[in-house]
Amino acid sequence: MERGSDKHSPRLDDAMSAEVEGLVRSGHDNREEWKSPEPSAEDQPDVDLVPNGTLVGGVPQGMTEQDVERRSVLASYLGRVWPATAAELLDVALGNSAPEQVLDTLRALPAGRYYANLQEVWSDVSGGHVESTRF
Questions:
Q1: Full-model pTM
Q2: Phi and psi dihedrals of 79, rounded to 5?
Q3: Rounded CA gap, 134 and 5, in Å?
Q4: Contact 106, 90 (CB under 8 A)
Q5: Is 115 in a helix, a strand, or coil?
């Protein structure tokens, strides 16, 4: 089995991957404040996945950059609750302190329908504008 690094031992590789796991999974640092890296200085550019504000090649056909962002925000407050009804999704979002925009989106879903995943929710929210293939 091939490991991620040949410089370190497997134990150290595992320790190093656990150190950044929160950042990789959630997109924000979950370490103690004193251990977190400092933000960019005033005269330095902010760290951003898309510095120029465009997701060239990263936007699925039929969606806009704003759609991708809205879907990502929606997903960040829902977690892994599937399958779920619209009411259950709303309860989860309320429990995760979702902003009013996310709550309004979930309130607009038809009652009583089961959603197997976020793709089905987004299909109802966006009027069917979903990516056709993934990876």
A1: 0.55
A2: 70, -145
A3: 29
A4: yes
A5: strand
Any idea where the domains of the chain sit in the sequence?
Answer: 1-40, 65-126
The answer to whether the CB of 85 falls within 8 A of the CB of 112 is: yes
Please give the single-letter amino acid code of residue 91.
Answer: D
Q: Which residues contact 13 (CB under 8 A, 6 or more apart)?
A: 3, 4, 5
∠ CA(99), CA(101), CA(105), 5° rounding? 120
- How confident is the model over 78-106, as pLDDT tens digits? 988 889 999 999 999 999 999 999 999 99
Main-chain phi, psi angles of 84, to 5 degrees: -155, 155
Is 119 within 8 Å of 130 (Cβ atoms)? yes
112 residue type, one letter: G
Tokens linked to 133 = 């293939």
